[in-house]
């Protein structure tokens, strides 16, 4: 379902919920995510919000108090960077929960199997962020290839009049780009890079009949046939360190890697070694294994572009994810299907 269609449905469902609330109290909602003032106001307009970060309490005490309330919360809004796993212990602490809404596309911090076992429905952000993340991935790639950030530092440091010409970059057009994960975000990246004249291939759990790009069942083989490897897959047991030493070796000394998926999709220690030893040419990274910690070695590398997990962050996406989150909550509380369910 497209983001626009989801938001239209959300508005229709919202009317149902608003009508229901007019005849009764607002349902309780757990909020474990820092949100801006408009987001907070929109939630409080519909729900009785129990805000963890505003409470100043430790999580166990906060959850215990919420669970002991006469009207305990039935829904949770949480973000992937909150650092709180929705696991068995969490669900045990608040047994009244029937819905978890993630404001992120990734749900690796939510135990989906346990939620399904308990009958707890789960929603994510769907395709709300896809275009913004794809734009960021392309931006990282252009920056690495054309040395944009490094050249900017060269000018600011006053080196241009001293050292003269700057080292040559590499053109984007014609590059063979392998994408790991051709979901919403991966397909948006592919379409953008196609427009630059890149040759696209991909690895995914299975071939996508709706695309004509060449499919590789092996990430190693994909890397061996690519100039650029873009990581755009979800993080799970199968994709943790899906880019390892062997894959980096296959990518080769002229290869570039871009990661806008999750930090642990790449074996970060092996990536640092490969970059230090010149076994790959460069990297553009928006995510890291132990955020917000970034390996010190990466900070001094001129062939590496680093951003602080901001690929999703635009003013437009913030507004869209607010409306989308409320749409999923409204659907749950009105007994309708979620807009973007994360469970089958």
Quick structural summary:
By secondary structure, this protein is an alpha/beta fold. Helices cover 42% and strands 14% of the residues.
Q: How does this structure look, described?
A:
- With 344 residues, the protein is α/β, with parallel strands linked by helices.
- Helix 14 links the parallel strand 11 and strand 12.
- It is 42% helix and 14% strand.
- The protein is elongated, with a radius of gyration of 22 Å.
- About 5% of the residues have low confidence.
Instruction: Spell out the helices and strands N to C.
Output: HEHEHHEHEHEHHHEHEEHEHEHEHEH
Oligomer: single chain
Main pleated-sheet profile? 7 strands, parallel
- Low confidence ranges: 9-24
How would you sum up the global shape?
elongated
Please state the structural category: alpha/beta
How is the largest sheet built, in terms of strand order?
8-7-6-9-10-11-12
Please tally the helical runs, counting DSSP H or I stretches of 4 or more residues: 15
